[in-house]
Amino acid sequence: MANDSWKMDNTVPTIIGASWSSYTRTICMALIYLGVPFRLQHAYPHSKLAYAHHPFGRIPTLIHGTHRVFETMAIREYIDTVFSSQLTPNDLETRVKMAQWISALNDYVFHYVVEGVCRRRLLSEAAGKSQDEITKLLVRPIKRAKPIIAELEAMTPDDGDYLCGQQLTWADLFVYPALAVIFALPEASIFMEIAPKLSTWTRKFEKRKEAIETFKGTIADDRNAMAKL
Predict the structure, then answer these.
(1) Does one domain contain both 116 and 160?
(2) Which tens digit of pLDDT belongs to each residue from 21-35?
């Protein structure tokens, strides 16, 4: 009964988030794929707007009528239940693989690669550090990150367009935005060398409608614009 009442809300959902946020991009790509119209209201983490909708000031948050859903995994569950479960496989084996990919991303890739390497580089650049200084600063974080990327490479299928089975799943939508950040930075060549399958998959995926329509405002987009100056 509760599910039915939530499904009856025909208002257009609003995503409180940022274009450069990997998790915001995951949710936006999912809604685009499912054909669900939505609005993106820009908010920085820990801003007044973010705190207004998330008790810890994080992004994204989904607002749908009177319903407020924060934390990306909870938003995923909401989308599956209220809009469509197309992104969650029916068979257990593929569903387990999907969950493993998402868990690996959340627990290891974000901590050791996105935060450890990418965010550190971006903050160092913003602080005006030289490339030599940044390179030295990233030696240890890269050493910790390389085994994580190597394990993802081992999980990546030898061919195909998707990370799990023969269909697009939440795994693809969670993993791609993070890899798009990783492969947009100067350290990309280091990770591409140890993860050629993952690199190829990322280049394929970036041509999808969901990736193209959410590209504007991403870190890769910003760096492309800076390179043209």
Answers:
(1) yes
(2) 999 999 999 999 999
